[in-house]
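Input sequence (114 aa), recorded before submission:
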Amino acid sequence: MSNTKVTTRERRKNKIKAKILSNSPKTKLLVFRSNTTNYAQLIDPATGKTIAAVADGQKATGTKSEKAKQVGIEIAKKALENNIKEVVFDRNGYKYHGRVKAIAEGAREGGLKF
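Predicted structure, token format:
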């Protein structure tokens, strides 16, 4: 098996998942990014079900990073509505750079603590 971008991301994802699942009773903030859209969701650690989710819709304007920051701010609002103040950030195997970093910064601006 060759080391493509996908397989290396999958390896990083599994390492991160093992650390997060073994140590934390906190709610997980999961990030996914496609070529066009940024997604963030809050996942309950006990049940594994989604509490809240946000995506930057087609109506959003600006660069991908600006849209990602708005996703972070929106997910923070939804978290605070559900009385969630601290989360564990699951970057889903992506490098902490660009849009993933923008979502994290937006969530911190919105009032979440990692």
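Checked by second reader. The chain has a mean pLDDT of 90.
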